[in-house]
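Step 1: inspect the first sequence and its tokens.
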Amino acid sequence: MNKIEKLIKGFQLLLKQPSLINLIINQNENWEKLTPINYKKGFGQVSLEQLFPDFDGKLDTVAFLDGGSLITDLLLLKNACKQFDECKYFEIGTWRGESIINLVDVANDLNTLDLDIKDYQTYDFTETYAKAHGFFIKNNAKIKQHLGDSTKFNFAGLNKKFDVIFIDGNHHFDFVVSDTKNVFEHLIHENTIIIWHDYAYSPERIRFEILNAILSGVPKQFHENLYHVENTMCAIYIPKQFDTNLLKVYDNPKRIFSIEAKIKAEQ
């Protein structure tokens, strides 16, 4: 198929299914072009041991399934919570509950916000997809499950400030901007740590739609405290200053991790 034939075929597909235009608009390369020049290589990188010199941890629940987090992402959350006595934790986006279930031993006040069943219907998600949410935290009395669309949720009504906040809901630009603005307006105190999942597709490939959403949602005076955490898919806001480096793709590993795993049980 030559270029003209591909062009004609493309127009035919768009006429049949106009929503396909979103695939073009949301290509990572297009978002990269919209990125401010001083962020073309992403946020400055910090290492896990820079953030938390005593970084370590054990995870009791890892599914190794699609849509989840890297082991380093989960340990980032866990070590962030360990910085606070009786940590108050809030997350947007539960999925199977893999992130929050690993924090039950390091956080005292655990909160998660995810769509209610009627919201899944609004966004035309399948019933199977909807039922997969919250798998690991069903009937867990230590975890407060708030239900609702985060773009409509009354964050001010929580009347509480949190120590660690994880933003991992809908990953399209407008939603990340909305979640980020609500968090900064209603939920943080002067030492709050905020972590965004899927800032990167992998530890070495930035997701520029999320980067731009973070920049749009975070007040400008806090931009200097935004970082990409090395070896993770996460960006972090932390009210501290660190020496940083820029992402260098295919760079040699700066650190090596030791991991031990076993199968606990079949569900």
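Step 2: inspect the second sequence and its tokens, then contrast the two.
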Amino acid sequence: MDGKIAVIGMGTIGSMILWRSSLRVDGVVGFEQFHPASDNTAVGGDTRMFRMAYREGAEFDRLLSESEKLWKELNNVSGMAVLDQSNGAITIGTDHGAYVEQFTKSAEKTEISYKSLSHDQLEKTYPQHRLLPDDVGFFDPRGGLLRTDLAVLNAIEQAKFNGARVHASAQVEQIIPHENHVEIEVDGQRLKFEKVVIAAGAWSRHLIPEGYSKWLKAGRILLTWYATKHPKEFAAEAFPAFMRDSTRLHMWGAPAIDGSTVKLGGIVPPQEIQRIAEMDRNLSSEEIARCNQAVERFLPGLHPTCVRSKAYPDLYSMDNNPLVGWLDEMPGVYLATGFSGKGFKMAPGVGEAVASELWSGQPNSDIAFANPERFQTREPTGHDWERLTRT
């Protein structure tokens, strides 16, 4: 054998599986077609929002709790602020609207503490946001900001410290399951492992059978950066990471960690892409104009002219839940992908759950809802793509 566990993809999820697996077993090897924390992948964009009060469903609660603990562990072992919870996070939505109702229902079911903000309280506390008449807010004291590049690089460094090996610029071309091992073809060479994990993000669907890949679609996510008129107003202590789903507006963003520019996303919904290699990384003039208009109307303290922008690929499942588990059609192969634009905040919790299943051979209840085999009893419909979650 060339190792016990091969992890294909050293991005958001793969780096965490590598780290947590390296604590349990020797012979863990990672493969990355670009380089760790590459800006060509869904890791790109500098930051992500961390939230404990999460409207997407109670099934994510334990993964988020475990992730919060492990983000803090990564902070401690690396000596870097991968997760910064000092300023919390806010959610803005239409009072009695579907988003707000789902948010409060999920938070109450999981008993996550949060502070409700009336329209007037929200306007007074966070005047940077221009509100609609029926907007209300929620403050999540355990929310915060994640540094994507630091997170991935430090997780990989910890894995390497534990004995894991990492191969960058290594293109995995094929996976061949056998009775008692799995072969992977990497840059013309064939390597043997006891188990293989596919965590290659948007590239995962090309490595798995059609019975699973037909439930996955690659999406093009747009991120933009805007310069502040008054930098102190958009520093992290005054302008926490936020999610907004108001009437006629969806937007999420991060404070000016560089002291001058605010990152925004979600204004233009994800678009399906057929071939990742041909995806346009640049935003069109129409896409830029749409983002500029939203900024001018709802964030008047920013210059309404985009100063930086880029498109990133991610992989979406048809029910907006990830695919995490063994593949019946590929013995010895484990899939961890399709996080539908919402995987980063829960990545270490997923990595821990996957590592426990790989090591013990026993199912982990925290990820049972994401078993890929759930799709084997139905067929996709033409409307599924339209239900992509607003992350």
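Step 3: confirm your contrast with the notes below.
The radius of gyration is 21 Å. The chain has eight helices and 20 strands.
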